[in-house]
Specification:
Length: about 725
């Protein structure tokens, strides 16, 4: 169930992005203490479809697990997960809470959105929260136990953070302590402790680094100004991974405890790491940028393969005759006629976009899809000829997704969650009956009938690992025997389409970048169809041509492309090389074993904040500022330059100490492709305390020569020696 499209545009998202409810929770606590009637009315604007829950509790050594029927099996699993994560979190914080932590479990995201634990309206995609007043954790199950455990661990980290900041027990007075811990530490630490950097986090953060969409830590005190909050979570986590691997285990917790003791963020980082907040960010950013550019070296942009059809598209599906393309864009279902590019919005609904999102019937008349209604997901059939909508009942399944028709048009296979497990089900169109096809703890999605209807292919996820499975059916369409595995170590898969000639799927098998692959029905012959540096998340092959319609993630946006495979660079993959190729490219966002060898780029100039103008809390005496004498001559020349090279990057460094160092206002950098040729002005840096500059505009096989000059109010120094 781990396909990514359409989920990071929400304020919190894909089950891993969360808000901290400081202010609203504080107000709710105040009103509940002041007036019982106000406490009842606060948050009354929430729409609630499930008002008859009878809450029960499971007591463990460190938790009170609250649940309602039929969530008892989920609650017991939650108790086991929470106790295991409790031990790990105690070790991370070197702290053991004395009071039990309340943890509320909701069987679906839609029921979770109705919670009255917080008065705030929860948008779709919020994966959980921990309210500060009573330290209550609330989490929904979205169908994947692997992701659910990470959410529990994330929120448990917040509970520990609140205990260390505000103390345990009743917090009505302690909440007014003037303690400031920035969001990059609160949320980054929760993700870091949950070890929650995966294929999606890698993709989003790599894209942000390549397109200069990451921000300095000084601008990440809150995440409200981020166009995609999820990016802020992943950046914060990655920086803390960098701290752990470069500066040592325990440093992240040490910084947090300094902040919890009321030290300003920059002071806390300096005291623990010996570098400023800006220097920490710049060291991380330089390493990330060099690694990201190295990773995509030699790969073309998606525009090389075709044209853009539409932006902000979450899923697409090709009609059986190849003449129309349906796609989901926010709350719109659109049908595009490919011959003349005419578009028609046929329906508006809050669509469920997990898995396939929708499916054409074999005769091209109906579109099957899922959408939310009255707090539950429903299966719908839309008749394109009559323009009528039919709602199909799937009793006992509050979450349904990823429909696919059978070749004879009698059945629709789909994924469903029954409050315990996520399995495959079959809906019979003529009778409306629903039949369960699988039953185990693994998460299943992207169910697709084989060409003759005698088998079903699907994605199976267990402990975070995904595989393509094939399940054989008897003449009544009932599974027989155990499913077989197609292929070997195919990476993180985000889509699957079955055609008579091949299986098409998108995976990050190559360089940890998602692209389109195809394989035969037995998984013995694997071919990579696209090799773009932008991530291809889903694919809709045209049955009659060589075209592929693909949703691509680039510059923070999901865009629908039309690719012609005649123009793509097909690469055959021997099956035995798949695993070794995948292992040779680790996730760059949490792999910093060699990062200490890379020196920071010139730091981003940070804004001076009001709080920075007052003496630091840990300073005994005010700082004595001496008046600078005006210069009377240009600066002396820079004595020498040092050079550091990475893929498509050259970094220059030079010493800044000297008799006239206080008069230097900037350094200018000049470049030429030959030592004897004319040098051109390249750029400058106004950071006179850190003699560094990074040139990104270089080619791997090119020759470049540089010199640097120092500048003050009087003039410019002589050139430095060439490098």
């Amino acid at each position: 169930m781990r396909d990514f499209t359409g989920l990071w545009n929400h304020p919190s998202g894909h089950g891993q992005r969360f808000r901290i409810f400081f202010f609203l929770t504080l107000l709710a606590a105040f009103f509940s203490m002041s007036s019982p009637s106000l406490a009842l009315d606060f948050g009354a604007n929430k729409v609630r479809y499930h008002t008859d829950h009878q809450w029960k509790v499971i007591e463990t050594e460190h938790f009170q697990i609250y649940y309602y029927e039929p969530c008892q099996p989920l609650a017991q699993t939650t108790a086991d997960i929470a106790e295991k994560d409790f031990v790990r979190t105690c070790q991370a914080f070197d702290f053991v809470p004395k009071t039990k932590i309340p943890l509320f479990v909701y069987s679906t995201p839609l029921e979770f959105e109705e919670t009255n634990i917080t008065p705030e309206i929860l948008s779709e995609g919020v994966g959980g929260f921990t309210e500060v007043f009573k330290n209550r954790i609330a989490v929904p199950m979205d169908g994947s136990y692997h992701e659910f455990e990470k959410v529990v661990h994330h929120e448990l980290t917040h509970a520990f953070q609140y205990d260390l900041i505000y103390g345990e027990g009743w917090r009505s007075v302690n909440l007014f302590k003037a303690v400031f811990v920035p969001n990059w530490m609160m949320e980054g630490m929760a993700e870091w402790n949950a070890q929650h950097l995966d294929a999606q986090g890698e993709m989003v953060l790599r894209d942000a680094v390549l397109n200069d969409d990451v921000m300095p830590l000084s601008l990440m005190e809150s995440f409200d100004h981020f166009p995609q909050v999820y990016t802020a979570y992943k950046e914060s986590q990655s920086i803390l991974d960098y701290v752990t691997q470069v500066y040592g285990k325990g440093k992240v917790t040490e910084i947090f405890k300094h902040m919890a003791a009321n030290q300003q963020p920059d002071t806390a980082v300096k005291n623990v790491l010996g570098v400023s907040l800006g220097e920490l960010y710049n060291n991380w950013h330089f390493y990330m940028k060099s690694q990201a550019w190295s990773r995509i070296n030699g790969l073309p942009a998606p525009e090389k393969y075709g044209e853009v059809l539409e932006k902000d598209v979450m899923k697409s599906a090709m009609s059986p005759d190849g003449k129309k393309l349906a796609y989901l864009k926010r709350t719109e279902l659109t049908v595009l006629r490919l011959e003349d590019k005419k578009k028609e919005v046929v329906l508006n609904k809050p669509f469920q976009t997990q898995g396939s999102g929708m499916s054409w019937s074999p005769d091209g008349r109906f579109l099957a899809f899922m959408a939310a209604e009255n707090g539950e997901d429903k299966l719908y059939l839309y008749d394109l000829e009559k323009k009528s909508l039919q709602k199909c009942k799937t009793p006992g399944l509050p979450v349904v997704y990823s429909p696919a028709w059978s070749p004879d048009q009698k059945f629709i296979v789909f994924g469903g969650f029954d409050d315990v497990e996520t399995d495959l089900y079959r809906y019979e169109v003529a009778t409306g009956n629903t039949l369960r096809l699988t039953s185990d703890h693994d998460t299943k999605s992207w169910g697709q009938y084989g060409p003759d209807g005698s088998s079903i292919y699907f994605l199976d996820e267990a402990d975070g690992k995904q595989e393509i499975h094939k399940m054989d059916l008897n003449d009544k369409g009932i599974p027989v025997g155990e499913p077989s595995i197609i292929g070997n170590d195919l990476g993180s898969i985000t889509s699957l389409v079955v055609r008579p000639d091949a299986l098409y799927f998108t995976t990050n098998l190559s360089r940890k970048i998602f692209n389109v692959f195809e394989t035969d029905s037995k998984g013995q012959h694997l071919t990579q169809l696209t090799r773009t540096f932008a991530d291809v998340l889903s694919v809709a092959p045209d049955p009659g041509t060589q075209k592929l319609y693909a949703v691509v993630y680039q510059k923070g946006v999901e865009t629908l492309y039309s690719f012609d495979t005649a123009d793509t660079e097909k690469t055959a993959w021997p099956a035995e090389l798949s695993a070794s190729e995948a292992d040779s490219f680790p996730y760059i966002c949490n792999s910093f074993e060699t990062a200490s060898k890379i020196i920071a780029i010139h730091p981003v100039k940070e804004e001076v904040k009001e709080a920075d103008l007052s003496p630091a809390l840990d300073r005994d005496e005010p700082e004595i500022v001496q008046e600078k004498k005006p210069p009377v001559h240009p600066p002396v020349s820079v004595p020498h330059l040092e050079i550091t090279e990475a893929s498509n990057i050259v970094q220059l460094q030079w010493p800044v100490s000297g008799a006239d160092e206080d008069s230097v206002e900037s350094y200018r950098i000049y470049r030429s492709t030959s030592a004897g040729a004319t040098f051109s002005y390249l750029g400058n840096t106004t950071n006179t305390r850190l003699g560094q500059y990074v040139d990104y505009d270089v080619q791997d096989n090119g020759s470049y020569f540089y010199y640097v000059t120092a500048v003050n109010k009087i003039g410019e120094s002589d050139p430095s020696p060439l490098v």
